[in-house]
Amino acid sequence: MKNFPQHIALIPDGNRRWAKKNGVAVMLGHEKGSDAFEKILEKVLELKIPYLTFWGLSLDNVLKRQKKEIDYIYGIIERQFLKLIADERIHKNKVKVEVLGRWRELFPEKLKQVIQKSIDSTKGYDKNHLTFLLAYNGTDEMIECVKTIQKQSKKVDEKTIKENLWTRDLPGVDLIIRTGTEGDPHLSAGFMMWDAAYAQLYFTKTYFPAFTPKELEKSVMDYAERQRRKGA
Question: Which active-site residues does the annotation give?
C-alpha cells in the first residue's frame, strides 16, 4: 500500500506488568516478550516494511535494575541473537541486523560476541533492516553526537547532526508504536529524538507479551489512513 510506513520503531513496554497481571514470575514476562518479538518480526516482513527498529533494553534498565533480572534478560537476548543467526527468514529476506547503544561497553563478553556474529553474518544484506537499541538512551545519543561535532569543529546543521548520530544509516521514523501505555501515552529518554521528528505515534494499553501481529497490522493500517503534513 502506498501509505504504509517504511520505518517502524517499536517501544515494547509492559513485560513486568504482564507478568504481575497473570500472576507469574517477572522473568516469564520477559520470555513472553521475546516470543512476541519473533511473531512481530514475521508480520513486518510479511507487510514488506523495510525498516524495523526495536528498543530491546534501555540504558536505565541496564544501570538501575537488579543484577539478577538484567542477567536473566542478557540470557534471553543471547538466545534471541543465536536464533537470528540461524533464522532462514533473515537470510531469505536479506535482513541486515544492526545494534546501537552502549552494549559494547556494558554487556558481558560472551553476549557481545554473539551479537557481533549476528551483525557480521548479515552485513552484506540491504533489502530489509532490523535494528536493535540495546543499552540505549536517546538523550545519550544526542549528547554523544554534539560532543563528536565539537571535536570535529564542524558547522552545526541538519546534515552534520544526522551524520554523527548512532542512527546515521537509518531513515527517519514514520511510525512509533509503544505498548503498555495504560492511559499515559508518552515517549522515554529522548527516544530517537532526531529521527522521530515527524513520526506518527500509536499507543496501546496492550502489554508487549500480548501484542499480536494482528494489532501490529492494525497500527499500520491506522497509519496508512492518516495524512502526514510534516509542518506544511
Answer: 13, 61
Helix (H, G, I), strand (E, B) or coil at 6: coil
Q: How many other CB atoms are there within 10 angstroms of residue 34's CB atom?
A: 19
Residue 220 lies in a domain: yes
Q: Where are the beta strands (DSSP E) in the chain?
A: 7-11, 51-58, 95-100, 128-136, 175-178, 200-203
Instruction: For residue 203, give the H/E element and its range.
Output: strand 200-203
- Domain with 41 in it: what CATH number? 3.40.1180.10
> pLDDT tens digit string along 72-129?
999 999 999 999 999 999 999 999 999 999 999 999 999 999 999 999 999 999 999 9
- Per DSSP, the three-state class of 61 is helix
Give me the domain span that covers residue 44: 7-137+171-224
Tell whether pTM > 0.85.
yes
Q: What whole-number distance in Å separates Cα of residue 99 and Cα of residue 81?
A: 11
150 within a domain of the structure (yes/no): no
Cβ pair 171, 192 in contact under 8 A: no
